[in-house]
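Structure in, sequence out. Go:
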């Protein structure tokens, strides 16, 4: 390889690293996720030495990812080096798709089916890393498109994996056109097939949005959060052994929350929802909060979505992170124990079975924060025709936009409205098509003087038909099967 070619090759690597930085993380630019694999393929196919090229690709993946996602994962709370180490070790998994692409590109003539090798492998690996993981689907490539509403509609059919496949197929097709010197006669079939598929995706997304029916119900829903950092402050107080101070602070908190709920009801709210862990306290104090909240719901004739975090004063039992829905008669009509993320938080793990309740405002359900990162669990909501899902959550600064954007995909997949009330993060209301109706950044709101990230909106409650709750992750499993086939064909080819 001559000097000019080598310099050009590292230009592709630099462009890849730049786009990786903006793909999916804290400074997300949706287009970057389409362009990053394009230049990675170009760089690695042109690499004279496969091993050395892979090391460069590993470096160009890990460093921008570490910077672009800094502080946005649970690993950041484990140890200062845990998060960088996690990304360094994880990078080779996704890069395996580039290895397969290079091997195929060097053994087979350019063709339509050859362009499918990379997207099938990359999507399969993305699906594999999101299946059975304690992180759920956190970090899946499709989340980089959280602001592209027409493309998000594809999730109603294929889940995340159809979106991922379309993105990666673009990179493979573009490289075929590049290698063939933009000769239309040679690339016409490849380009027309991909363009046709992409046009169908655009038409489906745009058509689904254009034909969206008005919400069946529009109740007034109010939500409020704790002042930023208050949950952590109270837990730290308990950790220092100040039990009396913790009790006094949480009882004062409960009194203020009851007053806020009453105020919201008297200002027209028909449903009031709080953030994850809002009802923090020792077990007996949380039980009293539930009694008082039930009396309030009955007196004001409202529904209350009340998340609690009950701590056993003896320390013998794990804390219980639970969300309950209390109806206007004062009865607890739904109780859900948090399923996801409890491995890291040290609280009791729920069954992952979603509960529903029928109300004059449609069918309601509720999960907690990290639960919404598990699409296979959440499709129970679509299968049960949930109209409005409540997702009380508690985030932190670096993850706030990432995590809120992820939740909106659950609305699209299952065709349901979403009300996400979040502490230390982004609270939002989305309709059954993932369109944001209201958004409040708790940290920005605190700077403006609103410490509770309050939102009171007319929520667009109603379901929309989707295929995902029926077929589930069939697209992901198909990609995994395709990956096995790709590896098998290559193995047979090498044997011969």
């Amino acid at each position: 390889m001559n000097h000019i070619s080598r310099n050009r090759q590292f230009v592709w690597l630099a462009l890849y690293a730049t786009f990786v930085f903006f793909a999916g993380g804290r400074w997300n630019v949706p287009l970057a996720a389409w362009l990053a694999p394009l230049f990675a393929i170009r760089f690695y196919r042109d690499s004279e030495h496969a091993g050395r090229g892979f090391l460069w690709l590993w470096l160009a993946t890990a460093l921008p990812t570490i910077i672009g996602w800094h502080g946005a994962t649970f690993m950041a709370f484990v140890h200062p080096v845990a998060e960088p180490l996690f990304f360094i070790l994880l990078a080779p998994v996704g890069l395996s798709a580039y290895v397969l692409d290079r091997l195929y590109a060097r053994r087979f003539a350019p063709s339509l089916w050859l362009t499918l090798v990379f997207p099938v492998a990359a999507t399969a690996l993305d699906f594999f890393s999101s299946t059975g993981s304690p992180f759920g689907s956190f970090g899946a490539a499709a989340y980089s498109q959280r602001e592209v509403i027409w493309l998000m509609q594809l999730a109603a059919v294929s889940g995340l994996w159809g979106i991922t496949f379309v993105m990666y197929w673009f990179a493979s097709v573009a490289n075929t056109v590049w290698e063939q010197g933009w000769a239309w006669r040679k690339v016409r079939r490849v380009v027309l097939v991909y363009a046709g598929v992409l046009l169908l995706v655009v038409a489906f997304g745009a058509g689904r949005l254009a034909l969206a029916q008005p919400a069946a119900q529009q109740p007034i829903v109010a939500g409020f959060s704790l002042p930023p950092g208050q949950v952590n402050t109270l837990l730290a107080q308990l950790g220092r052994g100040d039990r009396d101070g913790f009790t006094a602070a949480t009882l004062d908190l409960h009194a203020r929350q009851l007053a806020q709920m009453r105020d919201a009801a008297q200002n027209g709210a028909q449903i009031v929802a709080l953030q994850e862990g809002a009802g923090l306290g020792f077990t007996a104090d949380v039980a009293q909060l539930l009694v008082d909240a039930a009396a309030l719901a009955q007196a004001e004739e409202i529904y209350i979505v009340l998340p609690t975090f009950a701590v056993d004063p003896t320390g013998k039992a794990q804390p219980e992170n639970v969300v309950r829905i209390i109806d206007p008669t004062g009865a607890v009509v739904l109780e859900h124990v948090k399923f996801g993320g409890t491995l890291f938080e040290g609280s009791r793990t729920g069954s992952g079975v979603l509960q529903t309740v029928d109300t004059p405002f449609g069918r309601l359900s509720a999960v907690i924060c990290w639960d919404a990162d598990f699409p296979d669990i959440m499709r129970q909501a679509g299968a049960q025709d949930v109209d409005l899902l409540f997702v009380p959550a508690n985030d932190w600064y670096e993850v706030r936009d990432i995590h809120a954007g992820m939740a909106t995909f659950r609305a699209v997949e299952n065709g349901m409205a979403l009300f996400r009330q979040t502490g230390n993060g982004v609270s939002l209301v989305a309709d059954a098509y993932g369109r944001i109706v209201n958004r409040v950044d708790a940290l920005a709101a605190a700077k403006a003087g609103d410490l509770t990230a309050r939102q009171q909106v007319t929520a667009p409650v109603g379901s929309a038909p989707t295929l995902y709750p029926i077929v589930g992750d069939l697209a992901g499993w198909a990609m995994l099967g395709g990956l096995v086939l790709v590896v098998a064909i290559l193995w047979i080819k090498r044997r011969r």
